[in-house]
Structures are given as structure tokens and as C-alpha cells.
Amino acid sequence: MSGQGTGHDGRTSLSSWAAASLVILSAVAAVAAAVVLSGRQHELAASAGRRAAIPSGTATLLRLSPAPAEAAPGFTLTDQDGRMLSLSGFRGRVVVLEFMDSRCTGICPLVSREFIDAYHDLGKADGRVVFVAVNVNQRYNRVADVLAYSQEHALSAIPGWYFFTGSGDALRAVWREYGIAVAVSGPGGDLVHTATVYFIGPHGTERYTAAPPAEPAGSSTAYLPPGEISGWGKGIAQVVRTMLG
């Protein structure tokens, strides 16, 4: 995902690990995706005896992978309404966690639409799910920035929506914990970052990760086809239902 913005020390002086990690993660994902997808689908299907199975088509569309049965890294940040909250405060509900640029004009708005579609598709189960985003733009990291994004893209209509932000140090700490690399790309100074959606169970354990399609390098235009937007929303809802039991 990427968003356009002006050059600023807070954005262009990102530590070298971010740029290097972004390149490495993108390369590994591109090479490995086709090889491991069938194995992922087999592992997902094997869970059918314990809970509702995730359809193979959904697993393919979301590029879904089972996550190690480990506790999701905790964090405490400030949401779009100025409330300081902790990830642990969502225990008892499924958490769909994404990392978003508060000034993004590319993929992030499309992922936002996926969240809205998933919220509507969940129906009565929506109260058992929260949709969480962590800001990756350390220049535009004020509460006003994440609130403006939430309102512009209608995410405020989701009762369980939280767009978290904080100081540059606090945000970078969360990025490291979740393996999110952030860097500035191209002469236009586009902000790019690792695109991973985390599905965290009611007990705080990571269950799955999903990977939205990446944009072409150096592009800030929307890349996800309209049909896939709708499919992703329904797919997220399907995964959440299996986690709710």
C-alpha cells in the first residue's frame, strides 16, 4: 500500500532496516506464494473436523496462511477518538488487524472498503469482531489525521473500528513486532509498507495472516480490481466466522 506525500525528515529518514526488510519481504512473498499456497489450503482444510472449514477459493483470494499458535504482540496506542487503548482490551472478540497509511490514496482506501463490506456481511456477529488499523505514517500521526481518514472512508460507521496512532517511536515498535517494513519509494516520495492482515482469535492468539495484492512498484493508484474488493470483504467475514465457532 502506498500514499503520496511531501518529503519530510520524519518520513525520509526511516531506519535502514525498514527499506531492506520491505525489499526482502516483497521478494520472498512473490517467489514463495505459488509454491506454498496449496500446502496452506491443505492445512486450512484439515481444520474442518475441529471447526467450519475455510473454502479453498477464499484461502486463495486472501492469500491466507495459518499463523503460529502464539500470542499476538501487545501494544497500547491512541485511537481516532483520542482514547488510549490496548490490544489486550479486545479479548473475547476476533481482531482483524491491518497497517494503514493515514494519507494513503492507493490500496488503503480499498482495504477500508473491504472492512466495511465484511462488517455488513457479518450481520448479527458484528459485535464479536473489531477492525483495527495501526498507522504507518509517522509524519501524519496525529489523532486528527487518523480521524480524518476514518471519516473520509466511512470507517467511522463501523462500531468496532479503531485506527491507532502514536509517537514515531511507539509506532515503529509495533511495526517491528509484526514484521511491517515501512519506507519511502520513488522520486514522488510515496510511502510503501508491508501489506499483511492479521486475524487474532478471541484469546489473543494469532490464527491467520492474509496478503492483499501489492501495487506495481512506484504506483500510487488503486490496484485491487472491483470484483476482488467485494470478494475480500466476504472472505474476511468467512474467516472471522470460522474463528467465532
Question: What descriptive keywords fit this protein?
Answer:
alpha+beta; Glutaredoxin; 6-stranded mixed beta sheet; 3-stranded antiparallel beta sheet; 7 helices
Short description:
Helix content is 40%, strand content 18%.
Task: Describe this entry's structure for a reader.
The protein is of the alpha+beta class and 245 residues long. The protein has a single domain, classed as Glutaredoxin (3-Layer(aba) Sandwich). It has 7 helices and 11 strands. A 6-stranded mixed sheet has the order 2-11-10-5-6-7, sandwiched between helices. A 3-stranded antiparallel sheet has the order 1-9-8. A two-stranded antiparallel sheet has the order 3-4. The longest helix is centred in the N-terminal third of the chain and has 30 residues, at 16-45. The radius of gyration is 17 Å and the shape is globular.
Structurally, the number of domains stands at: 1
The CATH architecture: 3-Layer(aba) Sandwich
Structural class: alpha+beta
Main beta sheet, described? 6 strands, mixed
The CATH class is identified as Alpha Beta
Rounded to an integer, what's the Rg over CA atoms? 17 Å
Element string (H = helix, E = strand):
EHHHEEEEHEHEHEEEEH
What is the fold named in CATH at topology level? Answer: Glutaredoxin
Residue windows where pLDDT falls under 50 for at least 5 positions: 1-43, 45-51, 216-222
Strand portion: 15-25%
Helix count equals 7
Mean pLDDT: 78
**Helix fraction by DSSP (H/I, runs of at least 4):** 25-40%
- Spatial arrangement of strands, main beta sheet: 2-11-10-5-6-7
Distance between the termini: 32 Å
CATH superfamily: Glutaredoxin
User: In one word, what is the shape?
Assistant: globular
Strand count = 11
